[in-house]
């Protein structure tokens, strides 16, 4: 199982203020561990309820799936 955690000191907000939602996620859920299969199911449910986000969610899923691929870097 791959574990992804955010250190408390990690600030994801860019100079333009974008990323505040990621900072909130890190603050509120950063200590939790999730399996990628669980994340994938949650993202499927989100896309079912919000189909306009299908393309960016698919791109995120592809990026996460290929993080360790040396050929994509």
Please characterize this protein's 3D structure.
- The radius of gyration is 14 Å and the shape is globular.
- Helices cover 49% and strands 0% of the residues.
- The chain folds into two domains: 1-33, no CATH class; 34-72.
- With 73 residues, it is mainly alpha-helical.
- It has helices at residues 20-29, 36-49, 54-65.
- The longest helix has 14 residues, at 36-49.
Percentage of residues assigned to helices:
40-55%
Proportion of beta-strand residues: under 5%
Q: Give the low-pLDDT segments.
A: none
- This entry's quaternary arrangement is single chain
Distance between the first and last residues' Cα: 22 Å
Order of helices and strands: HHH
Secondary structure tally: strands: 0
Structural class: mainly alpha
Number of helices: 3
Rounded to an integer in angstroms, the radius of gyration calculated over CA atoms is 14 Å
Report the biggest beta sheet as strand number plus sense, adding barrel if it closes. none
Number of domains: 2
Rough shape? globular
| Whole-number mean pLDDT | 82
Biased composition (Polar residues): 1-12
InterPro entries: DUF6104
Region (Disordered): 1-20
Pfam families: DUF6104
């Amino acid at each position: 199982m791959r574990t992804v955690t955010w250190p408390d000191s990690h600030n994801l907000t860019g100079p333009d203020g974008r990323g505040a939602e990621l900072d909130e996620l890190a603050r509120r859920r950063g200590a939790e561990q999730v399996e990628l299969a669980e994340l994938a199911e949650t993202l499927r449910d989100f896309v079912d309820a919000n189909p306009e986000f299908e393309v960016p969610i698919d791109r995120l899923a592809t990026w996460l799936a290929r993080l360790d691929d040396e050929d994509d870097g």
